[in-house]
Each structure stands twice: as structure tokens, then as C-alpha cells.
């Protein structure tokens, strides 16, 4: 059972690892994951009470709260600390370093030391958090970043206090480190403040998703409209949404019609029309038209809530590439403390003196940055998965993100993925002695109970011929083959040639074109005839295949259709290879074979028959319009049905992992170079030595650089096609008409009207003005006003007039 807790007091990856280790020791805990950015602990446990987990976190030195809690942004309080520290640091630096710069300070050195102590004490009090959290962590033998800051600044304070005391009792003046302590505390706070601000931006994707849901909903109870908090809406309530309002829960439209902006969930820019019987989702926007719908999924069951949970889970998960960083972060702080002590001893042995040796050791402590190592992976994963969600791509885990970026083969199911998934009957071929009507009546009856898209095509065509399906009994569907049923006591069959042969059908079927999907029908063992069904290739299918080729990936198509049909689609789309006449088990076997050959395979599909293949592939990618079982089997869910989103998902995965590698490289190189520099490796040959203040500044900048680099993923964009838009001026063979359109409210409405008019035969160009509520169409031939009006009103707009320009 998964449990989530909010953990307070963590400052770096070492803290996160300490919490994970403490909780993982509890019997019954199978997994514990800490998301440092979201301050959450996710636990997989069986039979473990919340109190036990909370106590384990508390004993580790942190505070745990059950569930996800809204935590006030840390940078708000940090900003006040920072301002106060900076205001005190300026006079502290003047007193300590002014005389070296020739600035006047007419007081003895001992009194100057006292003044520095007086100024630095408030800085220590303002930044006491480093001591309050760092020292106890050190005592528990689980030191973190706060421990390094506390040891470094504390050693500087203690040394300076002792030297100042000796100076007051007549000892010669010596260098004090009060300004180093103040500088360390202040500059570390500067870095943590900037880091906190940047980390806040990494969670903007989840914040925007949370903001999509309205706080209240208008429901009809006891015959009256009531405005209720969203938490009070129950399944079965009738909800009213008016133009401009957000849909609060998932449901099915009962009355009215509206154009709905679904871009926040699916990434599709164009609005979709929702009428009675259509489904609506929470977080989408009703652009115009009032609708009433029955609430079906509320609270955590809505599509929006599930998306938010998926994004949170993905952000909290760990990519395999992060394992090395976690191992290093786990021993980093103790190792740095040991290195600092060794460096101190070496310089003392070399006769550099206590003051010099202590300064070098302090620099080693404060320049070391476990935060950069700890943040390198999670910030990039959080930003990457959040960006994906904004594009309508749901990635379930960080491991999925990494694996998708390494894939070299993409396998598409044909129907509903590369094609529209809406087949239509385009040919009827009756056997000798069988009438067209007799064939169609038998076909409609036997296909009526089936849920297959081809069955839907047969029934749709039968309706256009005013033929209603007769009731049947003993219906059976054979996956990958066909269906059978009993009509008026006689057994009928419908399916592919293999199924006809397996069913004992003998005799000749009529000759039919091989370039279309074929459905054969038989009564007992006697052929009745066949139908051909075509499924249009998606407009973006060929571009999608080309995009994958640009990514260096091999594109394969699997289908249960006949080879002739598959060959036609393969030729139109440009896939590298295809396999036809496959059963669901055959598709799974084909993917297993590719994996055995050493390929990392992504499988993209949308149907129930795709579930085994999605589960077998290294990455299962489900089209959002598909069946629920497919979504459960998938690692990546595409909320819209455009296959181009699959290419976008792979590109974004590669960009995110590339960003992680950049962050890890920077974090390792920074520490590998910074620690030796702070230890004084260049002092003997070149006289270069980092002061503790400069070391603190470098440490602050390192984590900020990592977070800032990850934030670049927010600007990820799919490459766009260059579109030539140089329309020729209207000539003698063209004419223009002006259509006055009522009901347009936004740019989405403009796109809907534009697309509707462009689809009319004879329309060459469309220019829609939202401000003037007009559409100017350029025609290459005569188009009636009624046709133009019908095209616009089909999108639920009102045409006030059509005039000649």
C-alpha cells in the first residue's frame, strides 16, 4: 500500500538519503522514496502504522506529516534572513578589511575585533538554522550540507573568539575569521535563496495542473442551482457549466452543446465540440454554450487528479542514471570532513601556521556541495515530466524517461494509431445467388454484438441502407480471426480467410481488391460474400515516421490486417518494415524477437489487443483515446491521438536525460576541481588560494547552476515545419465573400471557424477577425451561401449574414 508523507527540515540530498535509510529499516517497508524538491516521502508498506513511520523520520532529525501538505515557500522567510544578513555583512567587511584597503578605521585592532564579534552575532542568530540542523545531524553520524556550513563557520567563530581573547590580554594582533564566518553564512543563504526560487519553478507544472480545477461547482439539487465546494460534488449530481467556466469533474453531457478547450489536458490547441452523450473532463474550459452533465468521476478519480498523481509519482521516482550520484551523496559529507581534517594536518605539518591551516580547512568544508550532486537528476526529471504533461504526454517514472531516450526501434500498431481507427465500408461483393441486401442483413446481425472497429463500420453502413440488425444468440468472438453467431437457428461466420478455412467454409468467394481490409461472411459452410473496409491514414502519420527517422530510429508497423492492406499503409507512411496477419500473441512475439536481436523497443498502440505488446516492449506507449486496459499496460500515455506526440515524447526524453548528464558532469567536475583548489593545491606554485568567503560563493553558485540548467527544459519545443504562406492575389477567377459570425470568443473559436471553412470545396483562403466577428473567404469557384453557413454552424456558431465582398 502506498503512503505519502510531507517531510520538513531537509536541506540537501544527504538529508533525503538519511530519511530513506531510516524508514527503510522498518519491518514491512518495501520501498521508501524521498522527493527533495516536493518535500515528500512515498512509502510502499504492508501493515505498518503511520505513527511508526513518522517516529522513524523524527528520530532521524526531521519532521513528518501524514499526507501531502501545503508547505509555505521557504524562500519567503529566507529572503528576510538574507536582507538582514547582507545589511550586517557590509559593515562587518568594512571593519575587518577596510584598513587593508586603505579605508579609515581609527580604533585599535582589539576593539575592531570586538566590533566584528558584535556585528557577526546577529548574522549567526539569523542563520542559526545551519547550526540547529547541522550539529545534531553530525552527532547522529549522518552529517549533511548544514553540517559542513556549521563546522566551517563554527570553527572560524571559535578560533576568532579565542584569538580575540588573547589579544585583549596583551597578545600580539592576529588575523580573525569573524568576517569569514559572516560571509560563509550570508553567501550560503544567498545560494539557498536563489536555489529555492529556482526549485519553485520546477514544480510549476503540477501547480498549473492544480489550478485547472475550479474551487466550486454549480449543481442542481432539489430542482435548484446551488454553488458548492468542489469536494461536496458527488457522483450522480447534475452539474451546470456556462460559457467561460471550468468543468469541475468528469461526466457525460445530458443537455446543451459547447466548444471545449481541452489543451491543458491533451495538448491539442483546437477546441472540441461536446454534445449530449459526449464525455467531459475536469479542468477543461467551456468556451461557449451552456451544458448540463452528470458527474461520474469526482475527487481523486477524475482524469485531472490522475494526471497530477502520475506527474507527482514520476517526479518522485529515480532514474537509473542517478544511482551513482546517490551513492556518492551518501558518503560525500563525511568524506569532505575527513579531507578537510587531513588538509589541516598537512598544512600544519608543513609549518603554515594555525591561522592559515584553519582557513584552508574551512574553505574545503564550505566549497564542497552535496546539493549539486543531489539536485542534478531530480530537478531535470521534475521539469521534464512537467513539461511533458503540459504537452499531453504522461510519463509514469524517471526510469521510463531514461529508457525511452535510449530506444532505437519504435513499433506502431496500425489501426487507430497510424490510421484514424474509423474504418468505413467501401465495397460489397455478394457471392453467386446471394443478393446484396441478404448479405448486408446477415452481416449486420452477426456483427452487432461485436465491439471491433470493423464491426462498427459494417453496422454504420447497414444503417445508411435502412437495415436494422436482427437478434442473434450464441455469439462468440475469436481474437485475430472473427466472430460467429446463430441467427434463426443457423450458424453464421464473419472474419478473415483463415477463420473461414478453420470454420469449414467451402466454396468460392467473389474476387475482391486486395488493397483494402476484407471481411468474409458465410452461412454454415456456404460463402455469402465479402466486404472491403478502408481506414484513412492519419494526416501526420508520414511526418511522424520521418521524425523518427531523423531521431535515428527504425519504424516498424504491426497489424492483424491482411498483407495487402498493411502494404498500402506502409507505402503511404514510409515505415521501414511491417508485419501483417498477426494475432495479439504474434505481436508480442515479434517484439520479443526484436529485443532478442539487441533492440530497445517502444510499442505504441491504443487497443485491448495491444496490451500484451505494450507490456512486453521496453516502453509501452498508449494513445490516450484507447481502451483503459491499454493505458494500464503503458509506461507513457499520449493524451491525444496524434502519433506525432510519440516522437515528441522521445525527443523530450532524450533532452531530459541529456540535461541530467550535463548536471551530473557539472556537479562532479565542480567538486573534483573546487576541493583541491580550496585545499591550496595551487598555493605553492602560483600563490593562488581561495578564501572561505570565495569558497562559500562558489558553493552557492554550483547548485543554482544545476537548477537553472534544468529549467531550460521548460522551453523545450518540437521543431516546426516551415510553411510557405505567400498566397497569390485574387485574380479574375476568384471571388470573396464576407461571413458575419456570432459566438466567437477566443483564438480557439477563430481556428474552429477557419478550419470549418477551409474544408469547404472551392474555398482557397480564409481570414477570420475575432474583433470584427467576420470571416473573409476567397473562392476559386461558385460556393453557395448555404454551404458556407452550414459549415460554420456545424461548429455551433451562428451566421448572421453572408455578403459578397
Please describe the structure with a list of short key phrases separated by commas or semicolons.
805 residues, alpha+beta, seven-stranded mixed beta sheet, six-stranded antiparallel beta sheet, 28 helices
Explain what the structure shows.
The protein is 48% helix and 20% strand. The protein has 805 residues and is an alpha+beta fold. Helix 6 (145-168) runs antiparallel to helix 7 (178-202) and helix 7 packs parallel to helix 26. The strands form six sheets. A seven-stranded mixed beta sheet has the order 14-26-25-24-15-22-23, with helices on both faces. A hairpin with a 2-residue loop joins strand 20 (517-523) and strand 21.
Topology, please?
Elements: E1 2-8, H1 13-24, E2 29-35, E3 40-45, H2 50-59, E4 63-66, H3 74-97, H4 109-126, H5 129-139, H6 145-168, H7 178-202, H8 204-212, E5 216-221, E6 224-229, E7 238-241, E8 250-256, E9 258-261, H9 263-266, E10 272-274, E11 279-280, E12 285-288, E13 291-297, H10 303-316, H11 323-349, H12 354-367, H13 370-390, E14 393-395, H14 398-406, E15 409-413, H15 414-418, E16 424-430, H16 436-447, H17 453-464, E17 473-478, E18 482-487, E19 490-495, H18 497-502, E20 517-523, E21 526-534, H19 541-550, E22 554-558, H20 563-573, E23 577-579, H21 584-596, E24 601-605, H22 611-616, E25 619-623, H23 628-633, E26 636-638, H24 644-678, H25 683-686, H26 692-711, E27 735-742, H27 747-758, E28 763-769, E29 774-779, H28 785-793, E30 798-804
Parallel strand pairs: 15-22, 15-24, 22-23, 24-25, 25-26
Antiparallel strand pairs: 1-3, 1-4, 2-3, 5-6, 5-7, 7-13, 8-11, 8-13, 9-10, 9-12, 14-26, 16-21, 17-18, 18-19, 19-20, 20-21, 27-29, 27-30, 28-29
Helix pairs in contact: 1-11, 3-4, 3-7, 4-6, 4-7, 5-6, 6-7, 6-12, 7-26, 8-10, 10-13, 11-12, 11-13, 12-24, 12-26, 13-24, 13-26, 14-24, 16-17, 19-24, 24-26
Amino acid at each position: 500500500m502506498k503512503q505519502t508523507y510531507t517531510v520538513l527540515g531537509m536541506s540537501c540530498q544527504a538529508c533525503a538519503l538519511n530519511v530513506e535509510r531510516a524508514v527503510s529499516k522498518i519491518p514491512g517497508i518495501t520501498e521508501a522514496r524521498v522527493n527533495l524538491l516536493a518535500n515528500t516521502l512515498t512509502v510502499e508498506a504492508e501493515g505498518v502504522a503511520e505513527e511508526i513511520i513518522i517516529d522513524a523520520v523524527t528520530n532521524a532529525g526531521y519532521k513528518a506529516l501524514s499526507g501531502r501538505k501545503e508547505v509555505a515557500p521557504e524562500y519567503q522567510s529566507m529572503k528576510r534572513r538574507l536582507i538582514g544578513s547582507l545589511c550586517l555583512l557590509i559593515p562587518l567587511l568594512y571593519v575587518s578589511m577596510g584598513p587593508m584597503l586603505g579605508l579609515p578605521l581609527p580604533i585599535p585592532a582589539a576593539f575592531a575585533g570586538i566590533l566584528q564579534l558584535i556585528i557577526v552575532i546577529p548574522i549567526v542568530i539569523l542563520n542559526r538554522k545551519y547550526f540547529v540542523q547541522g550539529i545534531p545531524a553530525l552527532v547522529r553520524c549522518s552529517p549533511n550540507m548544514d553540517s559542513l556550513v556549521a563546522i566551517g563557520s563554527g570553527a572560524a567563530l571559535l578560533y576568532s573568539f579565542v584569538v580575540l581573547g588573547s589579544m585583549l590580554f596583551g597578545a600580539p594582533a592576529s588575523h580573525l575569521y569573524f568576517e569569514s564566518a559572516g560571509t560563509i553564512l550570508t553567501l550560503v543563504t544567498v545560494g539557498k535563496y536563489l536555489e529555492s526560487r529556482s526549485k519553485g519553478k520546477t514544480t510549476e507544472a503540477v501547480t498549473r495542473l492544480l489550478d485547472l480545477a475550479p474551487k466550486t461547482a454549480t449543481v442542481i439539487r432539489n430542482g435548484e442551482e446551488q454553488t458548492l465546494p468542489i469536494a461536496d460534488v458527488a457522483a450522480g449530481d447534475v452539474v451546470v457549466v456556462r460559457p467561460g467556466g471550468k468543468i469541475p469533474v468528469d461526466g457525460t453531457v445530458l443537455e446543451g452543446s459547447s466548444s471545449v478547450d481541452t489543451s491543458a489536458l491533451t495538448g491539442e490547441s483546437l477546441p472540441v465540440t461536446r454534445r449530449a452523450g459526449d464525455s467531459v473532463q475536469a479542468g477543461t474550459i467551456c468556451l461557449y454554450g451552456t451544458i448540463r452533465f452528470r458527474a461520474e468521476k469526482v475527487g481523486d478519480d477524475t482524469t485531472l487528479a490522475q494526471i497530477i498523481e502520475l506527474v507527482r509519482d514520476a517526479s518522485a521516482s529515480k532514474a537509473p542514471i542517478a544511482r551513482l550520484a546517490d551513492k556518492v551523496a551518501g558518503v560525500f559529507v563525511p568524506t569532505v570532513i575527513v579531507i578537510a581534517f587531513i588538509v589541516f594536518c598537512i598544512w600544519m605539518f608543513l609549518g603554515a601556521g594555525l591561522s592559515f591551516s584553519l582557513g584552508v580547512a574551512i574553505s574545503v568544508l564550505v566549497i564542497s556541495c552535496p546539493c549539486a550532486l543531489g539536485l542534478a537528476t531530480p530537478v531535470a526529471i521534475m521539469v521534464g515530466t512537467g513539461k511533458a504533461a503540459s504537452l499531453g504526454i504522461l510519463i509514469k517514472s524517471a526510469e521510463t524517461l531514461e529508457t525511452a531516450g535510449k530506444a532505437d526501434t519504435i513499433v506502431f500498431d496500425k489501426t487507430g494509431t497510424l490510421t484514424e481507427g474509423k474504418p468505413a465500408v467501401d465495397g460489397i461483393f455478394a457471392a453467386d445467388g446471394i443478393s446484396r441486401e441478404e448479405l448486408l442483413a446477415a452481416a449486420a446481425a452477426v456483427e452487432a454484438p461485436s465491439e471491433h472497429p470493423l464491426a462498427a463500420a459494417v453496422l454504420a453502413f447497414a444503417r445508411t441502407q435502412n437495415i436494422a440488425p436482427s437478434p442473434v444468440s450464441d455469439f462468440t468472438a475469436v481474437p485475430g480471426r472473427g466472430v460467429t453467431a446463430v441467427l434463426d437457428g443457423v450458424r453464421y461466420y464473419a472474419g478473415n480467410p483463415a477463420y473461414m478455412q478453420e470454420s469449414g467454409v467451402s466454396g468460392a468467394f467473389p474476387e475482391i481488391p486486395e488493397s483494402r481490409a476484407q471481411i468474409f461472411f458465410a452461412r454454415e459452410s456456404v460463402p455469402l460474400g465479402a466486404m472491403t473496409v478502408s481506414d484513412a491514414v492519419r494526416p501526420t502519420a508520414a511526418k511522424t515516421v520521418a521524425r523518427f527517422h531523423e531521431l535515428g530510429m527504425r519504424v516498424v508497423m504491426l497489424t492483424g490486417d491482411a498483407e495487402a492492406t498493411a502494404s498500402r499503409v506502409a507505402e503511404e507512411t514510409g515505415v521501414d518494415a511491417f508485419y501483417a496477419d498477426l494475432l495479439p500473441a504474434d505481436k508480442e512475439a515479434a517484439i520479443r524477437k526484436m529485443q532478442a536481436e539487441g533492440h530497445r523497443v517502444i510499442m505504441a498502440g491504443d487497443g485491448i489487443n495491444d496490451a500484451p505488446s505494450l507490456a512486453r516492449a521496453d516502453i509501452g506507449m498508449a494513445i490516450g483515446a484507447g481502451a483503459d486496459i491499454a493505458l494500464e499496460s503503458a509506461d507513457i500515455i499520449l493524451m491525444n491521438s496524434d502519433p506525432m506526440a510519440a516522437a515528441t515524447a522521445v525527443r523530450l526524453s532524450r533532452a531530459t536525460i541529456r540535461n541530467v548528464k550535463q548536471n551530473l558532469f557539472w556537479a562532479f567536475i565542480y567538486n573534483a576541481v573546487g576541493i583541491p583548489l580550496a585545499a591550496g593545491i595551487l598555493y605553492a606554485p602560483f600563490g593562488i588560494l581561495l578564501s572561505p568567503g570565495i569558497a562559500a560563493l562558489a558553493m552557492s553558485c554550483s547548485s543554482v547552476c544545476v537548477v537553472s540548467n534544468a529549467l531550460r527544459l521548460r522551453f523545450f519545443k518540437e521543431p516546426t515545419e516551415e510553411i510557405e504562406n505567400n498566397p497569390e492575389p485574387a485574380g479574375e477567377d476568384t471571388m470573396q465573400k464576407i461571413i458575419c459570425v456570432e459566438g466567437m470568443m477566443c483564438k480557439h473559436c477563430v481556428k474552429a471557424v477557419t478550419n470549418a471553412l477551409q474544408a469547404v470545396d472551392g474555398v482557397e483562403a480564409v481570414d477570420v477577425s475575432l474583433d470584427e466577428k467576420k470571416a473573409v473567404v476567397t473562392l476559386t469557384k461558385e460556393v453557395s451561401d448555404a454551404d458556407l453557413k452550414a459549415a460554420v454552424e456545424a461548429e455551433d456558431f451562428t451566421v448572421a449574414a453572408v455578403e459578397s465582398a
